[in-house]
């Protein structure tokens, strides 16, 4: 799980963007290290957010943006009625399943971005009050947006994790690398 994003190889803008997205993914994945399924599903504040719910949400959100960029139907498309289920595990879903699902989405995102002819290529935005009418965005915009979206939720995950057991992002990096993280 990336903690430092190295400088890109000269001219490898795609690699740089993918590395920044992966760094944010790593922050969220680290937030669940060493916790039980029950702990990751807990909500230690008045917010409805949980760590496992955040993992599920960012995985589904990344898939949604990927499918828009590919101009393919999203097999996990949410409706107004099921929107809340994107923030919590339901039925027989597990954190392990969500992490594996997100890993497959991440791999597909990387493969897609590496294969598009140009980061300047665009795709249409869906109709929504918060998007411009008939708006389009580039593949570069998509990747920057994923850094923003996942990074925002990585911050949420930091707060939730610290509320659960006092472990900070630095403690979790140490835990990931097998060092004795103070917490």
Fold topology:
Blueprint: H1 13-30, H2 37-41, H3 51-70, H4 95-115, E1 122-124, E2 136-138, H5 139-165, H6 169-176
Antiparallel strand pairs: 1-2
Helix pairs in contact: 1-4, 1-5, 3-4, 3-5
Describe this structure in words.
It is a single chain. The protein has 183 residues and is mainly α. Helix content is 54%, strand content 3%. A two-stranded antiparallel sheet has the order 1-2. α3 (51-70) packs parallel to α4.
In a nutshell, what does this entry contain?
Helices cover 54% and strands 3% of the residues. It has helices at 13-30, 37-41, 51-70, 95-115, 139-165, 169-176; strands at 122-124, 136-138.
CA distance, first residue to last residue:
20 Å
Structure class = mainly alpha
Helix content: 40-55%
Order of helices and strands: HHHHEEHH
Please tell me how large the radius of gyration is.
Answer: 17 Å
Number of helices: 6
Question: What's the overall average pLDDT, rounded?
Answer: 92
Summarize the main sheet: 2 strands, antiparallel
Unreliable stretches = none
Please state roughly what percent of the residues sit in beta strands, choosing from under 5%, 5-15%, 15-25%, 25-35%, 35-45% or over 45%: under 5%
DSSP summary, beta strand count: 2
**In order across it, which strands form the biggest sheet?**
1-2
Shape: globular
């Amino acid at each position: 799980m990336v903690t430092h994003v190295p400088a890109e190889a000269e001219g490898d803008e795609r690699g740089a963007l993918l590395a920044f997205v992966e760094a944010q993914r790593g922050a969220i994945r680290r937030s669940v290290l060493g916790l039980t399924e029950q702990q990751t599903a807990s909500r230690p504040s008045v917010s409805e957010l949980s760590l496992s719910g955040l993992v599920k949400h960012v995985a589904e959100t990344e898939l949604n943006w990927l499918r828009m960029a590919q101009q393919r139907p999203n097999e996990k498309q949410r409706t107004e009625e099921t929107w809340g289920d994107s923030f919590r595990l339901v039925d027989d879903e597990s954190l392990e399943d969500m992490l594996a699902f997100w890993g497959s989405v991440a791999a597909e995102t990387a493969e897609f971005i590496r294969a598009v002819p140009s980061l300047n290529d665009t795709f249409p935005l869906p109709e929504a009050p918060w998007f411009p009418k008939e708006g389009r965005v580039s593949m570069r915009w998509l990747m920057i947006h994923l850094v923003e979206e996942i990074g925002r939720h990585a911050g949420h995950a930091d707060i939730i994790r610290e509320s659960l057991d006092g472990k900070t992002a630095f403690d979790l990096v140490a835990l990931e690398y097998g060092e004795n993280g103070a917490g």
